Amino acid sequence: MRLNPTYNLLNLKVQLGRINLVPPRDAIHEIVKQALIKDGWIIKDGDDPYVISYGERFLFVDLGASKSAADNIQGSLIGAEKNNSRIAIEIKEFKAKSIIKDLEQAIGQYVLYQLLLQKVDPGRDVYLAISNTLYEDFFQEPIGKLVITELPLKMIVVNLKRVEVKKWIN
User: Which class in CATH covers the domain with range 9-169?
Assistant: First the structure.
């Protein structure tokens, strides 16, 4: 089946019928989403997950979000805007037996999404969302600091207990 690359997730689901191609969500997905909404981001239905269509492939980033100075829509919408900014957020818990394996996977997804968005949605930045505990425990180690500064890796650090964005790393 050949799909138009401008289709959103709703159209994709309609075309594919009962086939569920959307990967399972991380356990912290809803907490991160609510923290972003509290931070003023708008998340639209078609942006949870945010679908990147390239060629005949579809990739599913956990969330899309935007901030618009003129738009203060609140609620349970998914996909976000703020101050005319648009972002795609990959949410990671790092729960595998090897934290390095998790890091490798997260970096691979981040870089791939970044490359594809430059082609299909160049105004949208990619962020990796993680818990404040993971940030403090792992990303303050030399390897974590190296990845953040040298890649560079844009991150959203979320306090899971308070359901709030603690830090933006650009």
Answer: alpha beta
